[in-house]
Amino acid sequence: MRLLIFLLFFGTLTAEEPRLRIEIFDTPEELAEACASKIARLIQTKKNCVLGLATGNTPIPSYRALANKVAQTDLSEVVTFNLDEYIGLAPEDPRSFHSFMETHLFSSLLESPARPRGFKRSNLHIPEGKQKAEEYEAAIARLGPIDLQILGIGTNGHIGFAEPGSPFESKTSVVQLSENTRRDNQPAFGSDPVPEFAITMGISTILQAKEILLLATGSKKAEIIRQMLTQPISPWIPATAVRLHPNATLFLDREAASLLGSLHAKD
Ligand code: PGA
Predict the structure, then answer these.
(1) Rounded Cα–Cα distance for residues 96 and 98 (Å)
(2) Which tens digit of pLDDT belongs to each residue from 215-227?
(3) Predicted pLDDT at 7
(4) Which of 133, 136, 149, 192 gets the highest tally of CB atoms within 10 A of its CB?
C-alpha cells in the first residue's frame, strides 16, 4: 500500500517553499518496485534520458528491480552520472562506487555481443579522484541537465557526500568525509580505514536536476527524515536543500517515516 502526502511542513513551510511530495510504502520492497517503475518509465519514454544515480544500501533493491524491468529496453542512448566516489580507491577496488555500480546495476545491462542495445560504457559517468572536479561538472552541463536524480540520505543528512556545512552553492568538489559518515560506512571496509576524502557533486549540482527522488528506508533513517522535514532549511542538514527544489519527491518506507507523526494525507 502506498500513502501519498503533500507535505505542509507542520507549519514551518514558508511561502517560498515549493510543495514536496512524500510517498510512504509499507515495505522497502514496495518502495523499490515504485522507484524502479519510475526510472524505467522515464528511460522508455524520454529519448536520450540522463539519470543521476546514487550508491549505498538503500537503492540496491531498486536497481535490482530496474534491471528486470529494462532487460528488453534499448539503453544505448541513456546517460548516467553518479553522485560521488571515494578518493584513493582504484575503480576495480570492490569497495569503490565504480565496483558498486558494476555489481548492482551495470553488469547485467552493459552493451555486449549478447546485448547490443545495452548501456554504452562511454555514457556512464562516475567521478574519480584523478579527474578534475570541474571536468565532471562540465560534463554534466554538456550532456545534462539530469532528468531524474536519485538520492539517498546519510544519518547526518548528507546527500551524495555533500556533508553538513556544505554551502548550497557548492559544485562538484573533493571533500573531507565526516566522522559520522566514515563510521556509517565502516562495515564495507572491515578493519581497514574508510577513506578520509571523496569527490562529490555539490548541492547546487544536485539541485540543477529537473527532478529529484530521495529514498530512505529503515528505522535508522527516521530521525534524520524527521529533521529534514521539520528543521529550518540549512547547510547543516544538507538534505533540507531538497525542499527548495520545485519537483522533488521522497519515497519512504514506514520505518523511515515513523517519526513524522500526523501528516496531511492526500489519499
Ligand atoms: P545508505 O547510504 O543507503 O547505505 O544508508 C545513504 C547515504 O549515505 O547517502
Answers:
(1) 5
(2) 999 999 999 999 9
(3) 58
(4) 149
Amino acid in position 226:
R
For the question of residue 84 being annotated catalytic, the response is yes
CA atoms of 135 and 132, how far apart (whole Å)? 5
Which is catalytic among the residues 85, 147, 156, 185?
156
Is residue 163 annotated as part of the catalytic site, yes or no? Answer: yes
State yes or no: is 26 an active-site residue.
Answer: no
68 CA from centroid of ligand 1 (Å): 23
Please report, in angstroms and rounded to a whole number, the separation of the first and last CA atoms in the chain. 11
The pLDDT value given to residue 180: 97
Amino acid at 22: I
What DSSP designation does 83 have? S
* Dihedral angle of Cα 81, 87, 93, 98, to the nearest 10 degrees: 0
| Residue 1: predicted pLDDT | 72
